[in-house]
Amino acid sequence: MDVPALIAFDLDGTLWYPEMYMLNGGAPFRRDKNGNVFDSGGTRLELMGTSADILKAFATDPKWENTAVAYVSKTEYPEWAIPALKTIIISDSWGDSAKGRQGGKGPVSMWDLCNGIQEIYPGSKLTHFKAIKNKTNIEFEDMVFYDNENWNIRECSKLGITCVYTPDGMTAKTWKDGLDRYTALLKATS
Q1: Residue 1 scores a pLDDT above 80
Q2: How confident is the model over 33-77, as pLDDT tens digits?
Q3: What pTM was computed for the model?
């Protein structure tokens, strides 16, 4: 199966809940002995649906080692979102991925997955994706984007990105739908 060069995720309501503006305290975040993440006010931040399994695959499955992960968020609280990404552990190790084979050690956070490819600030997601394209040199047609806000899906699809609406956050169905649509588009254009 052909995999996209880049897969981008919205954060609030797509990968995690509650949304940043709903938190009681924001950063700093802490992780308890069970791996649960809480903000400074004690509100638990949870990954939605199959987000944890999907993200873990990027760290451990060699199939994804050439796919970049990006986070694209219009949150008003980037100063909370980035520390949250650094606190949420999605895998105990890099597994059999390229990083694991090259000696990558220790737990893998959501932040580790994106390798700095993130646009987390208020504004248009068109601006976010243009910045990502400039940083990565990856064409829009080689990107898949998951978001729980339909207007972002409509807007970004005009760039040629395969966009998937996730009204209930990441699920196995929406994940597969995005990959299937990307593959179908590849076949149609080759």
Answers
A1: no
A2: 999 999 999 999 999 999 999 999 998 888 998 999 999 999 999
A3: 0.94
Instruction: Give the list of residues 6+ apart from residue 149 with CB closer than 8 angstroms, or none.
Output: 10, 13
Q: Could you give the C-alpha distances from 18 to 11, 89, 185, in angstroms and in order?
A: 10, 17, 34
Three-class SS string for the chain? Answer: CCCCCEEEECCECCCEECCHHHCCCCCCCEECCCCCEECCCCCEEEECCCHHHHHHHHHHCHHHCCCEEEEEECCCCHHHHHHHHHHCEEECCCCCCHHHHCCCCCCEEHHHHHCCCEEECCCCHHHHHHHHHHHHCCCHHHEEEEECCHHHHHHHHCCCCEEEECECECCHHHHHHHHHHHHHHHHHHC
CA 154 to chain CA mean position, Å? 19
Q: Is the pLDDT of residue 99 over 80?
A: no
- The Cα–Cα gap between 79 and 44 comes to 17
Sign of CA dihedral 73, 13, 142, 189: negative
Instruction: For residue 108, list its beta bridge partners.
Output: 91
What is the pLDDT of the chain when averaged over all its residues? Answer: 93
**Closest Cα partner for 73 from 10, 164, 20, 166?**
10
